[in-house]
## 1
Amino acid sequence: MSRYRSVGLAAVSLLVVVLAGVPGCHGGEVAGGASSAVSPSAIAPHAASFQGGRDGADTNDVTALGVATCAGALLGDLNGDGSPGVGDAIAILRIVVGLSPANPLADCDATGATTVSDAIIVLRCVVGLELWPVRELFGPRIVAVVVPEEPVRGVFDITVQALAQDANVTMVRIDCTFNGTTQSIDGGEGTVGFDTGSLAGGTIQQFTVVAVDSYGLTATQTYDITVAGIPPTVSITAPADGANVEGAFDVNVIGRAQEPGATLAKIDVTFGGHTQMIDGAGTADLVGTVQFDSLVDLAAIAAVGPAVVNGQYYVTAVATDSLGTTGQAQIIVTVNNYLLHPENVTALAGQSVRVPILLTDTTNVTGFSMTIVWDASCLTGVSVELGSAVPPGALLLRTWYPGALTVAVAGTTLFSPWDEEILALTFTAGTTTGDTAIWIDPAGSTPLAFADRDFEPIWPLPALAPGTVTIQ
Ligand SMILES: [Ca+2]
Ligand SMILES: [Ca+2]
C-alpha cells in the first residue's frame, strides 16, 4: 500500500470518527508519528470566530495613510495554530459532511469547494509528504483612503479602495466607522459620507477602515480626522460678574469668530428664561447690547430660580459662528430690586396658611399703608400680625372686605434694617387645589405709601410683585 493510499484511508477513518461522534478518538497517531489532540468541538468556535477576522489578530492600526495587511493566515490551518494537524483535517471533514459551516481556509486545493481531497492535503503535510504551508494568505490590502485634507464640519466624504491579495479571493466589503456610525461599501472600492453632527469643533475623531475579503480576512487602518470649528469667543462686558441689578438693565456682549474664514452669525443672551438675539453683521466680530427688565416678567424670573423675586440669576451669552460652532460666557447677577411682595407659600387644603408681606429694603422706614388683595373663594378668614421687621407697639389699622384688606402702620421707631417681613396675613386655605395669587393694589382704598420717622413720604415707592399660595 502506498503512503498516499494509507493517508487516504486515514482520512476516511477520520471521517468515520467524526460522523460517529466517538469521543476520545479525535487525535491519535497518523503515519509518520505526528499527533493532534484537538477535538471537533474545540474547532468549531474558532472557525466561527475566524470569520470575524481572527479575533483581531490581523488588525494593524496606523494613523498615517499607508498599507496595512492582515497577519498571514494559512490554508488548511483551521485551528489557527500555524501547523498542519489531524485536528485541521477533522475540521475540514466536518465541513465536508455539513457538521461545520463552510470556511474558505479549508479549500486547500483551490477548487472552490471543500472535499476530502482538501483534508488529505493537510494530512500529507502532517506526515511530510507535502510542504507546509500549502499556501499563506495575506488578506486584503487597503491601498487608498482619501480623507479631507482640511478639518471637516458637517457632511464630508471619504473614498476607500482595498484589494484582495490572495488567489481566488475577492473583496467582500469595506466597513467605515466614524463617530459611532458604521457604513459599508460593497466590494473593494467606494465612497461613504459622514456627518460631524454635534461633535465639538477642534476635536480629533477617529475614522476606521476595515476591509474584508472572501476569506473573511481583514485589514484595518485608523485615521485621525480633525473636526473643524474652533469655537468663537464671547464675553459679557457688563454688568460685571456678581453685580447687583435693579429694574431694567443692559447686558453688553462682544464676540469674535475664531475659525479662519468664519463670521459670527449671532449672539444669544439669556436672563430669567428670556433670550434676546443680536444678529451678526457678516464679520468675524460682533458687539451688541440687549436690555432685560428684572421686574416686568417676574414669572419668568421665578421659573429659573427659587420662588423669590430677588436673588441670584445667570446671564448667559452664546455666540454662534457661520459654521454653527458655539462659544459661551456666563455671569451671575443679583437681582436687588426695591420690592414689596407677598412671599410664595404652600398650603394644605382647608388648613391655615401664613403669608408674609416682604419689603426688600426697610432702611428709614417707620410706617406704611397699603391694600392687599386676594381671591376670597380660595382664601378666607384673614387675620393680621405685624412682621418681625416692625418694632412692637406700632399702630395697626385695618379694614377687611372679602378679598381685600387695607392696613396702615404708623410709628417713629425705625424698622429693622436687616429684616424684610413687615406684615403677615394668616388665611384658611380653600379646598380647591392649585395656585392663587395675592397682590398689592398701589391705588386701592388705602394707597401704597411708606413714611420715615418724620412722617415724610419715602420715594420712590418699591416695585410690586404678586405672591402665590399653592394649595395642595
Ligand atoms: Ca493547525
Ligand atoms: Ca477543495
## 2
Amino acid sequence: MVLQFIDPEDCNCTDCQTGVAVPLRHATQSTLARLVTGELRARFDATVKIHITVTLSPPLLALMRPNGRLPYGATNLLHEAQRWDAEIGITATED
Ligand SMILES: [Zn+2]
C-alpha cells in the first residue's frame, strides 16, 4: 500500500494497519517532510506544530565575530550550499 495520509496520534484504523496512513506519533522525519511539501495529507482536525531545525556544519556561530556580526564574505558562503553540510530535523506535535 502507498502511504497517503497522516492520521491522529494514536489512530489504529484499517488504513493505519495496511500502510495507507500512519499515526502522527509514528511518522518519521521523512514522512513529516512529505506532509510539509504537500505530498501527504493530514487527516485530522487538530492543529499540528511542525518544528524544523537546521544544523549547519561548520556552525554559523563559529564564523561570528565577538560583536555578533558575520565577517565579510560569510554571506556568500551561506549561499553556496555545497560548502555546508545541513542536517535537518523535523518533529511534529498535536497542539
Ligand atoms: Zn488511521
